[in-house]
Here is the input.
Amino acid sequence: MTTTTAAISPEGQTEVSSFVAMVATIAAIGGGLFGYDTGVISGAILYIRKDFPIGGIAPKDLDKLKDGTFMKHFVAKGRMQPLLEAMPVKVILNENTALIGAARCAALRSGLV
Here is the structure.
């Protein structure tokens, strides 16, 4: 196993090994790509939201959920039908559900509950 270390040049500057430079370059490219991808998705959400409504779907379509229209189409998936029929489907109408869950999780972790 060969190890490389940083060496001090005559000018007093540290020379970085090629491995460290390669890792830093790959990390910078990966970070740039991730940031670019996140920006593209964030910008696309504005236009996707028109065609694919995000959030608040169940309260708007509560009548279809109650009359069985949704369940009829939900379970009609060929060989997956037995699995989907056994899967419970519930509508949560409380807008603070995520906040309540986070508070409960924090209380459990801190020993308050």
